[in-house]
Give the backbone structure.
Amino acid sequence: MNASLSEGAEEILMRPKRWRIGVEIVFLVICLVIGLVLSERFGPRPIIGTVRFEGLIVPPSAQQMWNILEAARRDPRVAGIVVEISSFGGDASSSEKLYYAMANFRQEKPLVVVIDGEATSGGYYMAIAANKIYAPAAAAVGNIGVWMSRPADPMIVPDVLSTGPYKLGGGSRFDNIRQLEMVKDAFVNTVLHERTQSPYNPLRVDGRVLGEGHIYLGNEALALGMVDALGGVSDAIPDVAALAGIARYEVRDLTEYLGLPFQPVDPFQMLATLRDTLPGEVLLLDTRFIALVGPAYDATSFRTANGAVLPGGKRP
Amino acid sequence: MSNTHRSSLVIALGILLLVLPFAVRSVLTEWRTSSYHPAASGQVELAATPEPTPTAAPAPREPEAPATYLRRGPVVVDLAHFNMVSPSQFQALSAQLAARGIALRFWTNPTPMASVDKSNLAGLADQSDQLAIQLRDASALVVVSPLFLWKDAEIAVVERFVADGGRLLLISDPDIPEVPDRFLRDLNRLAERFGVIFNDDYLYDLSRNDRNFTHVYQSQFWDRAAKLQGKTIVFYGVRSLSGPIISQVRTGETVQSSLRSGLSGFTTVALAGLAANRSTGRVLAMGDFDVLTEPYVSRYDNLLMLEFVADFLAAAQREQELADFPAYMGARVGLTFGGDLPLDAPFLAQVSQLQQLLQTSGRTLELLSPADVVLTATMTFSPSAVPVGTLQPPSAADSPPLNDLVYVASYEAAERETTLLRDAGIRLAEITPTLTPTLTPTATPTATPHNTPSPAPEPSPTCTSQRGTFALLPDLDATPEVTLTPSITPEVELTPTPTPSPAVTRVLETSFSPPLLLDDSILILRRQLPGDKQVTAVLGSDLAALESALDRLVMQNFADCVTRPDVVICPFKFEESAAAPEQTPSASPTPEATEGPAKTPAAVETPSAPLGSKGDVLVVDDNRTAAAEDASEADIYTRTLQEMGYTPALWYTASDGDPTIQDLLGYRWVIWSRGVYRGEPAQTKTLAALALYLERGGRLTISGRTPVLGGSSRPASAIADVVLTDEVPPLVVGLSSSTITLPPDLPPAVPLGNQWGDNAKVAMRRGPNSADADAPVLVALESNNAPGEGVRRVIILGMALNWLSDADTAQLVRNMAAWTLER
C-alpha cells in the first residue's frame, strides 16, 4: 500500500497544476504585450526626412545636396522628404543638376518643397521638381531667367595658337546670346512642364510672362499656379506621409540621420565666386543679391530678401 | 517534461514574444512596399539644333575717295571724360566719315584712369581750354556716355561751337556705364542745353527681337530718316528720348520701356537744338551706340543707320572766323609781302612755320610776286609762281583754285598799296603834342668874352623820367667861369640852335575802338574779295611786329587779343621780338685793341627792328657800378634833351641789364653814359651789339670817365683841364672857353686812345695841367656804312659830363644832339 500511495502521490504531484498553466499563459501574454509596446515605442518606423538648402547654388553646395538626396533615395527607411529651400539661385548647371536630382528622387519617393523666404531663379528651378510646393505668403518666388556677363567677340590671343575661331571663346557673340536664350527657354519650358502637371494648383500663366523674370510674393505665386499651397514644414510632412501611404513615421533631419552635413556656402565666398565667374558663364541668380552688396563686393553688411541680416565685414 | 524544462521554455517564449514585434516591425519597415506611385513626368523637349555657320555675304563695296581738294574739319570724339568706349568701336563710323572726306579725331585725357578719383565723378578738372583747341578746326563733336560730369565751362564751349555751325552727336547707351544712378544721367547736363533728355530707362520687346529682349526693332522713321522706312534697323540696348525734339526713329507697339510703363512708340533717334542758342537742327541724339559698331552694324540694314549718322556729321558748315585760321582757307594759299620789307632770317623762319601749319591741314603755300597782287580797287590776285615744295608745276586741271591770300606788310605799306585798312574802317593817324614853353637855344657870340658869365639857362618845366618827376631849376648861384687867359676862339659860323622836333605818336584810328598805338599793336584782318577770294592781312609797324603777328597766326595764339569775326587786334611789345638768345660773339674786342668801334662778331643775333622805330634817343645809364653818392650823368642828358623837345628813353643797366641789339635799334641815337661811375669792362656781347648798331646806321655817344669803349689801356688819370680844338666846331660851339678848367679832386678818367683812323676827329683834349696831357677827351667819328645803311656817327667823351659847368654841360649836349641827329 505505501508503494502505490507513493506512486499515486508522486503522479499527482508531477501532474501540472492548472493555475500554473494560467500563469505561464499570462506571462507569455505579458511578454507579447510588452514586446508590442516596446516595438511601438522603440521599433523602427518609416522616416520622413527634412533637409534645408540655403544660399548660393554653386558646385560645392549642389554636390552636398545631391549626396543627401541620393542617400535618402537609397535608404529604405526614408519614405519621403521635405526640402526647405532658401536660395536665390546660382550657376545654371548646378541649378539644373539639383532639379534633376530632385526630380529623380520624386520618381521613387514623395518630395515636398517648402520655400523658406526665397526661392528665386535657380532656387525655384529646384523647387519645381517637387510633388508639391508650399510657400509662405511673403516669400519671394520666381525670377525665371538667366544672365551672364556681356559676351565679347572672338579675338586672337597673342601668345596662344588655336585651331578654330571659337576654340578659345566657345562661340561668336551672337552664339553666346543665342545660347543664353536657349538656357532661358529650357528654364521656362521646364517650369511649364512641371507646373502644368501639378495636381494641386496647376500653372495659370504663359511662358512669355514667366520669361519676364518677375519675382512674385508667395500669395501671388499661388494665384498663378507657381506654388501649390501656402504653408510650411508642418504642412508638408503629413503630405509626404500621405503620398507615401504611411500612417506612422518619424521625422528626422536627413543630415543627421544620414550623417551627411550640409554647409551653406559662406556669403563672402559667394561673392568671390561671382567675382571669379568666367565670362560667358550663365547664371540663374537673383541679382538683387548683387545689388544688396554693391558692385565692389566689399559691403560691410547686407540683408537677404527675407530680412535676415548676414554678418558683414570687409573680407579680402 | 520537468518543471525546469517547462519553465525554461516559457521564459524563452516570453523573450521571443518580447522581441518578435520589434523584429516584425523592422522587417516590414525595411521591406515595406510603398504605396507611392507617382505619375510619369515625362521629359521636357529641349533639344535645339545649333545654327549653321552662315554663308558669307559680300562685304559692302568700298566707297570712292571724295573728290575734294581739302579735307574738311575733323569729327572730334570725346574720350576726355573717361567715356567707357574704346576707339576701336568707332571703326565703322570712321570709315563712313573718311568716305566723306572727314577724319575722326579722339580727344583724350592725359591723366591715367588709375590716377583719377572715381569716387568723385564731378571732380574732373575743367577742360574747356583744351576742348576749345580741339574744336577750333572741327566740324562735329561726338559725345558717348561720359563717365565724369561735364563742367559748365565745357558745355559753354560746345554751345558756341554748335552756334558756329558745328554738329553735335549725343549718345547715351544703357549698356555703357555712366554716372551712377544716384546722379542725374550726366549726358543730360549737356543734352538739355539743346532740348533733349535721355530717359533713365531701356527699351525691350519680348515678342519680337533679335535674339534678346533688349535687341529691339525700330519701326517708324520720320523727317530726315524717312528714307529708312521699310528697312530693318535693330538697336541693341537702347533708351528712349524726350524733350522738344524732332523724332527721326521710333519703336513699334510691342516695345516697352523699363521705366515708362504702359507706353509704346518711343523715340530713339531725334534731331534737337534750340533757337535760343542757335543750335536748331544741329544736334542728333541717339539712345544706342552699339548699332554704329561691329558686329551690330553689319546686321540687317543697320549700315543705313550708320550712313544716316555720318551724313548728319558731314553736313556741318562752320562759320569760320579769323581766329579759326587756317580753317577758313582753301587748298591753295598765296603769300605776298607789301612795301619794301627786308626779310631777314627770323622772318623767313616764321614764314616757314606758316607753311608747315598749312601743310598739316592739307594746304599749300605759294609765294606770289607783288605784281600778281592788286589789293586796291579791283582786288585781284593770281598765281604765277610755282607752288613751294612741288617738283613740277601742277596742271591747271589738277590744281584747286587759288582763292586765299596772306598779305604781310607794314601799316604804312598797307595804307599806301591797298584799300584793306580803309575797307576795314581803319586809318593811320598821328597825334602831335603841343610843347609849352618852347625853348630857344641862346646864340654864342664870336668873340670870347673874358668876363662874361655863362648865360643862365632858362627855367625848365617839370619833366618826368622813369625815375619819377623832378623839377629842373637853374643853378642861380653858380659862379660863371671867367677865363683870363688868351682865348683861342675858333672861327665858326654860328647857326641858330635847330628847332627840336616834337614827339609824334602814331595811332590806328578805327571805327570800333579808341585809337590804338601803332607801335604797340599788330593787326590781322580778313576781307572777302570778289570771285570767292579772300585775303588775310597781317599788319604791324615794323619787321619785329610782323614777326610777332605771324607767330601768333601760326601758333593761333589770340588769347590776349581782341577778336572780331574778321579783325584781330593783338598787343605787341618790342621785347617780344628779341626772342633769340644772346650769343657770345666769336671776337672779343677790347678798348685797347680796338681803333674805333668793335667789329661785328659772327655770332651776334641778327636784328630785325627798323632803326628808330621806338624813338629818337635812348639814354643808357650804365649804373651797374654806381655808388650811392654818384650823380647820374644820364639824367643830365635826359634833362637837356627834353628841353630841346626830345623824348629820350631811359635804360638802367643795374635793373634792366645791358640792352640788346634789338633794344638799341629802336632808337636813332644811343647815349651810353657812365659819368663818374667807376665802370667795369664791357661785356663782349654788349660791344658786339653796339658795333652792329653802328653798322645798321645807329648814332652812338659814349660818355664817362671809364667809357664803355674808346678808352686806352693806360691807367686812369686826373683831368684838370680840357682844351677845345677846331677839328669839330659844331661840337664845341657855345662852350664857355677854349680851355676849360675842371673842378679839383675829380676822380681819374681813362685816357682815350690816340689812334682813331681817318674818320675820327678830336674835338677836345686834355689840357696841359692834366695827367696824360693832350690825350683826346672828346672824339667824333663819322663814316659811311654800306649803301642804304646810313652814316655812322660816334661821339666818345672820356670824362664825366657834369665835370663841366652846367652851362657848358647843357651846351655840349645840345651840340652833340645837333651834330648827331640834325645833320
Notes: The first helix of chain B runs from residue 3 to 30.
